[in-house]
Write a structure and sequence with these properties.
elongated; 16 helices; Rhopdopsin 7-helix transmembrane proteins; Arc Repressor Mutant, subunit A; 73% helix; 2 domains
Amino acid sequence: MIAIPLPFVVALLLAILAGVLFFRREETTQSAFVFIALCALTTTVVGLRWTFDYSLFRLIQPILASCIPVTAWYCFSSAHKRHQFKVWHFLPPIFVTLASFSYPFWRPPLDPMLTLLYVSYGIALIRASFKTSNLPEQVRLSDIDNALKAERIAGSILLMSAMIDGALAVDFSFFAGEHALIILAIGHAILLPMLSVAVIMMSLSMAPSVNEEASDQNEKTTSVEESKDKSQHPLTDDEVKDIIHKIDVLLSTKEVFLDPDLTLDRLARKACIPARQISAAINQVYGRNISQVVNEYRIERAKTLLLSTDKAITQIYLDSGFQTKSNFHREFSRVTQQTPSAFRRANMKS
């Protein structure tokens, strides 16, 4: 029986996954496709490098490895409208490329460089996921919790990948690479697929972009507010009250929470208020994030439908603005400490 090295098996699975995303041709999964294709290519090169030990693969491997944290950051930053992908993010891969090609001449410290790169982006992702005033604006509000978890998972995996790079450096320094295959198997057979799943979770949580022409007027007004937002001055009590009033009108009167694709960015456009200011005001007044507040409006609608109609729970969560049953049940339990079925049974009139 022919034995296929593990990296090639993982690369094949990642390539299939990338193909599925490619043929879906969805706007929000394009960056995930690029990332997973990169992971598949990297894993393939790792397999070729350790199977055939060609110098070309030894040259390419660190270059591809340096692109992974940068591309992961791009995938997650695309969910944060304010976090534009800066040109300087290309500098680490460029520097690693130059160092790889010049390796025979001056032996640059590639392993420490890669370790530092993974640590830096890992910490950056984890920090971004814990900033309550910096929620991902392009993610559906019902999916923000899952998106933030994916961001933390990705950051943690990058940190673990840095440990893998460090372990490889130690292994080659003290054991002549005796354990390199085992270390690489852990890194590329476990961590890369997990990182790919985290990226997919984020991409599937993002809502498709709205028609820009339809919201030109809102954008003009919002652009004026954005200039204020750049100063990042603390909101006054009057500003907070005004923001809360506008959001309450949108949620209570216009019932924008019924839109399952509602994002912080869309809410900001409708309110003509910068997203960061909305997050800050909501956190200050309610002590919760905007996702939880919007979902509470949806739960109130669901409670009404549960008691006033005979609709199936599946139809009720769709009619309340939720897109998935899991999110609906999680939020319903958070708000009421009951499942929807238990709530209906306990409150139905005899």
